C-alpha cells in the first residue's frame, strides 16, 4: 500500500482489500492490444484491451474506446493499432484504483457494480480534464507509486471527496466521487480556468464537477483528514470484496470476447476467490456464483 507522508490511510484495510483484488484479477495482463473499433462511431476509432498469457481478453479490466487525437501525449498508452507490452507499474495502478473506489463506494454517485459496468475502469485512465485550456484526456504515467490516492479537496471551507490520479505540471489531477455543484466564488484564484468556467456556467455561476471527468487542482486544496479514513467512513472490507466479486461475475457473463476467453475468465475467478482472504473470500465467492446463476 502507498505510504504518503502525513496521511491517515488505514494500511491494514487497504492491504486486505488490495490482496483480494489481486486474487480475483489473477490473470495478470500479458499484453495490450489496440485495434480498429468497428462497433462505434468514428469519434472513437480505436479500442484498447488487455489479454492474458492464453490470448484471452481480461473482461474485468474492460475495454477503452478512444480517439487518439484526444489522448495525452506523454506516451503512457499506445495510440496505434498493434500489440504492446503492458506499461511498467500499470497493473499496480489498476489494483490501487479498484481498491480505493471500493473503499469509498458509499460516497460515490453509483454503486460500484453499476458504475463499473457503465463506465468501467478506463474512465479513470482516460478522463477528460474539464478545466484545461486544451481538449485532451488525461492518462497517468503509472511510474509514480505515490498515485492514485484518496483525498479531501476543500474550496472555501467546503470539503469534497476525490481520487487523486496523478500530476500534470504544477497541479494534481483529481476525479470527484460524485457530481458536485460549487459556487465559482468559492474557487481559489489559483484554480485553473476559474474565470472561463464561471463565464460559461449555465447554473448561475455554480460550477458542476462531474464524476466521470478529471480536474486540475491546486495542491494546497488537497489533504487527507483522519476522520475520513476511520471505519465508519469506509466500506467494510467484507462488503468491498463481495461487491468486487459481483462485478467479476457480471463482467465475465457480459464479455463480448470469444467463448474461450469467457470460460478462462470464469475459471480463473472461481479458482482464485476461495483461497483469497478466508471468510471474506468465501462470502465473495458465493456472491459470484449467485450472480451468474441468476442471470
Structural write-up:
Keywords: Membrane, Transmembrane, Transmembrane helix. The chain crosses the membrane at residues 273-294. The protein has 295 residues and is of the alpha+beta class. The protein has one domain (11-294). Helices cover 32% and strands 22% of the residues. It has eight helices and 13 strands. It has a seven-stranded mixed β-sheet. Strand 8 and strand 9 form a beta hairpin. The longest helix is centred in the C-terminal third of the chain and has 17 residues, at 237-253. The model is unreliable at 1-6 and 256-295 (pLDDT under 50).
Average pLDDT over all residues: 75
Order of helices and strands: HEEEEHHHEEEEEEHEEEHHH
- In whole angstroms, how far apart are the ends? 35 Å
Question: Structural class, from secondary structure content?
Answer: alpha+beta
Morphology call? globular
Number of strands: 13
Count of distinct structural domains: 1
Number of helices: 8
Helix content: 25-40%
User: Uncertain runs with pLDDT below 50, 5 residues or more?
Assistant: 1-6, 256-295
**What is the gyration radius calculated from CA atoms?**
19 Å
Largest sheet: 7 strands, mixed
Protein traits:
single chain; 295 residues; alpha+beta; seven-stranded mixed β-sheet; four-stranded antiparallel β-sheet; 8 helices; 32% helix; globular; disordered C terminus; membrane; transmembrane; transmembrane helix
Amino acid at each position: 500500500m502507498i505510504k504518503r507522508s502525513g496521511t491517515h490511510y488505514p494500511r491494514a484495510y487497504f492491504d486486505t482489500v488490495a490482496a483480494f483484488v489481486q486474487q480475483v484479477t489473477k490473470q495478470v495482463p500479458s499484453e495490450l492490444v489496440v485495434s480498429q473499433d468497428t462497433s462505434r462511431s468514428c469519434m472513437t476509432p480505436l479500442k484498447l484491451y488487455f489479454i492474458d498469457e492464453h490470448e484471452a481478453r481480461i473482461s474485468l479490466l474492460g475495454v477503452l474506446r478512444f480517439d487518439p487525437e484526444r489522448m495525452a501525449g506523454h506516451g503512457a498508452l499506445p495510440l496505434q493499432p498493434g500489440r504492446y507490452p503492458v506499461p511498467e507499474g500499470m497493473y499496480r495502478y489498476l489494483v490501487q484504483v479498484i481498491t480505493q473506489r471500493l473503499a469509498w463506494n458509499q460516497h460515490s454517485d453509483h454503486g460500484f457494480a453499476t458504475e463499473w459496468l457503465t463506465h468501467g475502469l478506463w474512465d479513470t485512465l482516460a478522463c477528460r480534464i474539464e478545466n484545461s485550456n486544451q481538449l485532451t484526456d488525461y492518462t497517468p504515467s503509472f511510474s509514480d507509486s505515490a498515485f492514485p490516492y484518496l483525498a479531501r479537496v476543500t474550496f472555501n471551507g467546503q470539503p469534497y471527496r476525490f481520487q487523486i490520479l496523478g500530476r500534470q505540471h504544477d497541479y494534481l489531477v483529481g476525479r470527484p466521487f460524485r457530481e458536485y455543484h460549487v459556487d465559482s466564488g468559492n474557487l481559489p484564484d489559483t484554480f485553473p480556468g476559474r474565470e472561463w468556467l464561471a463565464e460559461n456556467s449555465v447554473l448561475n455561476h455554480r460550477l458542476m464537477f462531474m464524476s466521470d471527468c478529471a480536474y486540475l487542482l491546486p495542491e494546497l486544496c488537497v489533504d487527507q483528514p483522519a476522520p475520513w479514513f476511520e471505519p465508519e467512513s469506509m466500506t467494510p472490507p467484507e462488503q468491498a470484496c463481495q461487491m468486487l466479486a459481483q462485478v467479476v461475475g457480471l463482467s465475465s457473463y457480459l464479455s463480448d470476447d470469444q467463448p474461450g476467453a469467457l470460460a478462462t475468465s470464469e475459471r480463473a475467478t472461481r479458482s482464485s476467490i476461495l483461497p483469497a482472504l478466508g471468510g471474506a473470500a468465501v462470502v465473495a465467492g458465493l456472491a459470484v456464483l449467485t450472480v451468474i446463476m441468476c442471470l
